[in-house]
Write a structure and sequence with these properties.
The complex is a heterodimer of chains A (about 110) and B (about 110).
Chain A: E1 4-7, E2 10-14, E3 20-25, E4 33-38, E5 45-50, E6 56-59, E7 62-67, E8 72-77, E9 86-94, E10 97-100, E11 104-109
Parallel strand pairs in A: 2-11
Antiparallel strand pairs in A: 1-3, 3-8, 4-5, 4-9, 6-7, 7-8, 9-10, 9-11
Chain B: E1 5-7, E2 10-13, E3 19-24, E4 31-37, E5 43-50, E6 65-69, E7 75-79, E8 88-95, E9 104-105, E10 109-113
Parallel strand pairs in B: 2-10
Antiparallel strand pairs in B: 1-3, 3-7, 4-5, 4-8, 6-7, 8-9, 8-10
Classes of the chains: A mainly beta (about 110), B mainly beta (about 110).
């Protein structure tokens, strides 16, 4: 019940494409869903986050779509750039408990 | 201002030796987390400190792992009698209060046990 599933494991898109990363959870107690971006040799950094009272949140080129009934959420990156190449982690949280997905390695080709 | 810092950045040790990993959180942050990230894997929660409260040690994989946080600031993660399967990147994160606040991660310590 504490697991967060994430797919795909890796993703390659051309510059300008729209990569989509999907996550799913089981525990309905989760009420905060952040996405983290990690570059090689660096720690993860918060990218965008959503709470279950909204179905979509957009910040710049990054959008989270949230489906509470399906217990799924996804990250969309509009007009992707080579600089977006990184590993992306979804997470689910309640209280101080954070559970991370296994990560998606994204490569954006020039 | 300064972010979360960790030291050493890299550590190579021999199987059976003890290692200490250090984390300096952002000043004023009361919550501190330790995670382990194995190659190509997600983040595995290890331990959580909040202020002066007893830490949540539910993620520690064995009794060879321990952590302390002195004065509500610097934290040290100790691994005794290291094993090859302990090889991973150990990440520290801090947040203002812990409950669904943004976690700020350090760069990690890359541990290799030979």
């Amino acid at each position: 019940q504490q697991q967060v599933k994430q797919s795909p494991q890796s993703l390659i898109v051309q510059k300008g494409g729209i990569p989509i990363i999907n996550c799913a959870y089981e525990n309905t107690a989760f009420d905060y869903f952040p996405w983290y971006q990690q570059f090689p040799g660096k720690g993860p950094a918060l990218l965008i986050a959503i709470r279950p009272d909204v179905s979509e949140k957009k910040e710049g080129r990054f959008t989270i779509s949230f489906n509470k009934s399906a217990k799924q959420f996804s990250l969309h990156i509009m007009d992707s750039q080579p600089g977006d190449s990184a590993t992306y982690f979804c997470a689910a949280s309640y209280g101080q408990n954070f559970v991370f997905g296994p990560g998606t390695r994204l490569s954006v080709l020039p | 201002g300064a972010g979360v810092s960790q030291s050493p950045s890299n550590k190579v040790t021999e199987k059976g030796k003890d290692v200490e990993l250090r984390c300096d959180p952002i000043s004023g942050h009361t919550a501190l987390y330790w995670y382990r990230q194995s190659l190509g894997q997600g983040l595995e929660f290890l331990i959580y400190f909040q202020g002066n409260s007893a830490p949540d040690k539910s993620g520690l994989p064995s009794d060879r792992f321990s952590a302390e946080r002195t004065g509500g600031s610097v934290s040290t993660l100790t691994i005794q009698r290291t094993q090859q399967e302990d090889s991973a990147v150990y990440l520290c994160a801090s947040s203002q209060s812990g409950t669904q606040e943004t976690q700020y991660f350090g760069p990690g310590t890359r541990l290799l046990v030979l």
